[in-house]
Amino acid sequence: MAEFLAENNPCGQSILRLVSRGNAIIAELLRLKDYIPPVFRLETKQDQQKYGEIISDFSYFKMSDEFDQKIDSNPQLQDLDEEFRENYTEILTRFYLVFESLHKYITDLNRFLDDLEEGLFIQQTLESVLLSEEGKQLMCEALYLYGVMLLVVDLHIEGVVRERMLVSYYRYSAQRSSTESNIDDVCKLLRSTGFTNTSASKRAPNYPEVYFKRIPVNVLYVNMVLGRLRSDDIYNQISAYPFPEHRSTALATQAAMLYICLFFAPSVLHTQTAKMREIVDKYFPDNWVISIYMGITVNLVDSWEPYKAARTALSNTLDSSNVLDIAARYAKRMQKMIPHTQQLLKEGALIEENVLDHVSKVTNVVRECNVTLRWIMLHASSPGPAWEGNKRCKQIRDQVTADAKCNPLQVFELLLNTAQFELKIKDMFKHLLMEKQNKWEKYKKEGVERMMELSEVFSGTKPLTRVEKNENLQSWFAAMGKQIDSLKHEDATASGRKIGQLIQALQEVQEFHQLESNLQVRQFLADTRLYLHQMIRTINIKEDVLITLQIVGDLSYAWEIVDSYTSIMQEGIKKDPSLVIKLRATFLKLSSALEIPLLRINQAHSPDLVSVSQYYSGELVGYVRKVLHIIPETMFGLMARIVSLQTSVIKELPTRLDKDRLREYAQLEDRHEVARLTHSVSVFTEGILMMKSTLVGIIRVDPKQLLEDGIRKELVKHIATALHNGLTFNPKAKTSELLGKLEALGKIMDGYRRSFEYIQDYVNIYGLKIWQEEVSRIISYNVEQECNSFLRNKVQDWQSVHQSKTIPIPKFPPTDTTSVNFIGRLARELIRITDPKLTVYIEHMTAWYDLKTHNEVINLKFFSKITKSVGTAGLTGLDRLFSFMIVTELQNYLNALQKGVLQDKAWLEMFAVVSKGLSPCCNIISNPGRFYSQYTSRAQRVWPQILDRVLKVGQMQLLRKHITCELNISCKFDSKHLVSALQVMNDALLAEIEAHYKEPSKPYPKESNPLLYELSTYLDWTGISNPYTKIYVTTKNLQFFSVLSFLFVVSQLPKLTYAKNVGSLITRRVQDPMDGVPFIVGMQTLLRQFHPEIRNQFLLYLGQYVKSHMEAAISSSSGKVSELPNEVVTTLHFLESFAHYSGISRKTLAAHIPEPILDQYQTLSTS
Question: Which of 193, 454, 545, 1053 is exposed most, by the fewest CB atoms within 10 A?
Answer without folding.
Answer: 193
